[in-house]
Structure formats: structure tokens, C-alpha cells
């Protein structure tokens, strides 16, 4: 068998070898420049697919971090707003205590009621506060609305009861700011369990100092009415009119019936009545408005002073419960902020782990790649010398 080799064949074979070595050198140089050993899916399809999944996981963590920053800013803004509301309620309570004195003139009471109405407007302004990005803090899950509007002394809520759930980590959701309806509109009154009230037609000087539950099982949430059949005699009836207790009364006595205790001062008149019922919800704006109205009401009739004292005392209790309500919401806000801090630590650990796995899959080992490049350059140099030598030869040299 005879093998024929042409001069052109020798040249082509040498050129192809040199080009292969140049491709290898170019590939290694590209890996070193880009710090990537996975340049194309064909290089390692399985590794490329895995790296894409890791990239997606890292992108999700980055988005989670941005979400966490946004909700943290809003929660800190809410915490600041609630602190401001608490300060306003503290001042309102101080004014109520100051007003509950018979030594004040009508002008003094008018001045106090004016300040209370200014406090109410300030609380309304806080309730409509923005987070700095154009979104309202207390509109629930609704955007683009002013949540609270004052119309004729009554405040209406235009937001909703929802709270946006924001993903701040893998399978970790956290609630955004609280709905304004929960913060300002549905606030427990009285002591948070029961609330005492005074009949509008009372003519005596009896003042309901406190009302509280002494036996929850006996009370069972019923509305109870303390009626004075005479100035020195009483009876306690439930909503159906059944008499639960009756007896003589002396000023300063505490009356216990149906699991509830009434403590009065002053001298009730026959026909006066006091009611205790499950504490209803009331918006904080109505509480402040009612307190201001009670303080500036004229004291023309003998029983007006007692009615004013009862109204102010009731409002003081409502304000104290509202303060506790704000503190409770602030505590919930603090717990969510702590969860955000914990999620940040978890995201940091997860990101490090993902980056390490991704680096192992596609990042270049510089020591190995540099050694490989040196070897490839040596091979390329040898191929170039071989081609150069072949170019100077001819089959005629063998003749």
C-alpha cells in the first residue's frame, strides 16, 4: 500500500494543529479574564443548569433584602407615629385630670377643651402620615387614598382592614404596617373589659369612681344596671330586669353583684342609675371629641357638675386603655422589626453558602488555569515552529 503525501497536505495538517492550539489558548485566556470556566451551556449542561438555579436563588435573596428594607422603613415610621400618638394621649389625659376639678372657671375649661381639640387634630394628622415615599402608613392594603377624613366631628376611615404580607426570606413573610381601623378606630374603652356609664337623667351628685369585674364566671359578659330606688337604697338588675342584688346604700360603699363591683362617691338621688357593660370599641377621635364636649359643657343645673365629673372620669379610663392599646401595637411592631433583623442574618448565611456553591461550579481556579495556559502556549509555540519548518521543506528534498 502506498501513502501519498502532498506538500499542500503537509501545510494543511500543520495549520490545523496550530489553529487548535490557538483555540485552546484563547479559551483559557477568556476563562482567566472573565473568571468563568462555564462560558457556554455546551461546556457542561448539568453544571450550567445548576448555576442558573443558584443565580435565581441569589436574585431572590437580593429581592428579599430590598423588600425587608422597605418594610423595615415603614415599620420604623409606624413606631415613630405610634410614639407621637402616645405622647398626645398622655397630654390629653393630663388635661382631663386637670379639668376634673370644680375650682376651674368656664374660661379655664374652654381653654382646656380647645387644647384637646388641637390634640385631636394632631392625632388625625399622624393617622394620615406618609412613609416618605408617598404611601400612607395606616391605609391598610390600599394605596392612593387618604385613610382618615373628618366630617362634622366624626372621623371616617377610607382604608381597609388588610395588611400586605411581604416576603423577606425564603418562605418567610412579614406583615406590613397595621391597618388604621385596628390602630385608631377599634379601640377598647373602660378598663378594656368593662365600661361604666351614667344615665343621662341623673339628678344626684353620685359619681361612678370605678367599675370592675370581680368574678368573670358570674358576670359572663352581661350588662348590669345599678338603680337607686331611693337615695339610701339600691338594686342591681340585668338586661332582662331580674334583680341580682338589693340593699341599703351609704356614700362611699362598694356594691358587688353579678360578678361586678361598683364604687361610687357623692350622693345619688332616687331614680339615678349607673350601667356597666362589656367594654365597647370606640375610635380615639370620638373619645377626644367627647371629652372636649364634656369639659366645656355649661354647669347650670345642680347635677351638671356630677355629670361632668362622670363623663371626664369615663374619658380618663378610655384614654388609659387607648394608651395601653397603642403600646400593644408598638410591641407588635417591635417584634416584626426583630424578625427582620433575624431574617437579615439568615439571608446573609444563605447568600454565603450559595456563593460558595456557585463559585465551585463556574469560577476559575487561577492556579490550574495559569498552568494550563503555560502548557498550551508551549504547545502553540511548538506547533508554530513545526509549521515554519514544514513550510521550508519540499518533497523534492527527498528525491
TrEMBL record:
Keyword Secreted assigned? yes
Cell compartments where the protein resides: Bacterial flagellum; Secreted
The answer, when asked if Transport is one of the entry's keywords, is no
Pfam families this protein is in?
Flagellin_N
Q: Which residues are in coiled coils?
A: none
Q: Which InterPro entries match?
A: Flagell_FlgL, Flagellin, Flagellin_N
Keywords for this entry? Bacterial flagellum, Cell projection, Cilium, Flagellum, Secreted
The superkingdom of the source organism is Bacteria
List residues of the Flagellin N-terminal domain: 5-141
Q: Which family is annotated? A: Belongs to the bacterial flagellin family.
Fetch the NCBIfam families from UniProt. flagell_flgL
Write down what this protein is called.
Flagellar hook-associated protein FlgL
Specify the species: Luteimonas notoginsengisoli
The organism that produces this protein has a lineage beginning with: Bacteria, Pseudomonadati, Pseudomonadota, Gammaproteobacteria, Lysobacterales
